[in-house]
Amino acid sequence: MHVVGLSEIDAGMIGLVGGKAAGLGEMIAAGERVPPGFCLTTEAHRAGAIPEDALARAYERLGGGRVAVRSSATAEDLPDASFAGQQDTILNVEGTEELVEAVRRCWESLDSERAVAYRRDNEIGGDDVHMAVVVQRMVDADTAGVLFTADPLSGSRSVMVADAVRGLGTAVVDGSAEPDHYEMGPEGIDGPEDGCLTRARVEELRAAGERLQRHFGSPQDAEWAYDADGVLWLLQSRAITTLFPLPDDAGLPRPRAYMEVGNIQGLLRPLTPMGMSMMDAMMEEWVGSYVKDRRTGGTARLMAGVGDRLYLDMTDLLRNKRMRPRLPSMADIYGPRAKAGIEHLLKDPRFSPVKGMPFSFGPTVRLALRYALPAVAGIVRAVARPEQARAQVDRGIRILREESAAPPPTGATAAERLRFVENSSGDDAMFRGIMELMWPLFTGIILTTAPGAVLKGIVTEEEADTALGGMPHNVTTQMDMALWGMAVRAREHRDLFLRTPPEELAEKYRAGTLPDIGLEEFLQVYGHRAAAEVDIGMPRWGDDPSPLFGTIANYLRVDDPEQAPDRRFARAAERAEAVIAEVERRVRRRHRIRGRLGLFLMRRSRELTGLREIAKFGWLIPYWTTRRQLVLIGEELAARGLLEEPGDIMFLKLPEVHTALEQGADHRDTVAGRRAFYRRELRRPTVPSLLLSDGTDVEALIPAPPPVEGAMMGKPAAAGQATGRARVVRDPAGAHLEPGEILVAPTTDPGWTPLFMTAAGLVTETGSPIAHGPTVAREYGIPAVICLHDATRRIKDGDLITIDGTAGTVMPVEEDGDGGDGGDGPQQAAGREPEHADRN
What we know:
It is built from 29 helices and 23 strands. It is α+β, with helices and mostly antiparallel strands and 840 residues long. The strands form 4 sheets. The chain has an 8-stranded mixed sheet. Strands 9-8-7-6-10-11 form a 6-stranded antiparallel sheet.
């Protein structure tokens, strides 16, 4: 079948007609007004030659005249990848000869540089992608534009946005004109009174958007046009692919507010589903009985997984009269914008204070009575006798290493191993070990800030920070020094460790053919650690030491002895001691009581503050044992054909492991979907620090800070900041951007987007936040500022600039006389799926 009418198409035919045609067919079936037309199917593309006779007959049946010819690839307009503007659309095509040529151009665009790059960046294989072509009667547009059924900038699902221009909507899509902008929210319509659209037409668009979103089951990006008779035509609808996922808070009173807390643990990437499931189990075991939902009386989850990230449910804290005043200072650790976000929510009447406490009173009082006196006593003992506190920490680590529950023996059933996993968070030895660590750790945390607070006005903030440098007794620093020691021992085999890929070195180590640099001894102490280590789905260094060899290779490239980690640590310690000596001289002359107390705390800080990282180090020791049991369960499930491979268990949740073991449930499709979602989230460059239950990124609601003197003002279009050299480009043909440069252009259409892959940011003179350029910028995670008047004239090629896609500003950066760029340029968070975690 080479030609099929649009009215005959449904979503199940995507392999034959591609994503765009399938969407149009669904819209027609749902009763929407769509320009009539037909689809040249992928069968014609597979055959390799355009069936001109069949195409001509279909065009004749349509009535001839002007048509729009649009690509409809099998990987296009999908829920996970929009391919917005990556393939060709040709308008006002008339006559069979022009139609055949337009089809040829659509076919060729499948393999264009921008389309191939987009597929590569979204991990879509090109071998199985084929092109169908949609042919539709042209709408003689009086007004046209784009409708987003969720705000692409704030993420709010409660707000729709529409951009409109006179005539064809291509001026909105390609960003070549500044359109009229309308927002449709719970409080009504916001937009120009004398713009392209009447209020009645905006309401009609809102209703159409609601229907499309309801039919397709997700927020939609729709193109539309009003003809000269005032009739609304819907030209296409596809999923918005850049929105951050919604919280799963069904059954809880709304609205709710969440704060992202994974970054406190250095966790910028998503957790695996098993990592999130284990985290839920531990939180329920440790604090579940203390937290309640005030309105329902039931237990609310203190920690929520959103987009597979860790979020703290702040709702009841925001509504609590006693906690509210403390929240801005608590949020300050995330930076001024997060603090401003909390302050914004405190003014939101939806989070007004209510009576009661956000926790169960009885259990909490019993907990306080049980631990209040031991806490005070433990902290006082640690301050008085720091050596004993450190000995207590060593005792706790020994308990966690030697007394934690023994794993099931070889030959144990998978069900027995699962019981061990589920009981691991409540293990008595883990509790005793953690409690041994707890009070010395809290003392160390208190002593991080206490000296500076006592000595405020006597020492500067810089001096207080310097006094914390080169801190002894820090398990992380000790680990780094041990890594450096291995690098020193590896020097006599420098070429081997520099030129051999880390994976090959790991194989040599496992085979016993690697020179002995002390790795075995290192792993005995630190083998339970890893990047993103709070996620049980991530491999430990003891599972796969490959990352360690990358670090050793970097250490081997340190040529300057003064830049060696041990010398840098020693210098930091020397500076700290020098500050303390200077403070001692200073307080002899004045502030004798406060000064001596602060000096005492400074010295105690040098002995105890390093302990603040010990709890996670200790907790992860038995956690590694738990992970190994999960892998063994995965091996059995894979052997039974219920998983493709053992590591797939990290993409299940604990209840699903039960159904697999007890009922033989086949979870392979579930795992495939979650792996795809996980890979997409790994590519997400930023996540909201404060999120509402309707998807709103709270920081997007905060007014931009006053413009800094000298800043050029445009409009925000894609969030984030970047500093780099400007590359002014007026024509993308033959243009080249070095990695880290910021693209400055009059406008951008899809032909520009290959440049985005190396650009650190985007600045344009015209455009719309929902045009192709900003949409693709958001997909690539680069900031964008649009509508900056005369940007290509005011910004010179090679200028060092900082762009803020949240505030809509471009700021020239002053440079040193030596021509240095004044910084390291933009840094993007990048992630990789835990291959070894999933394939053990």
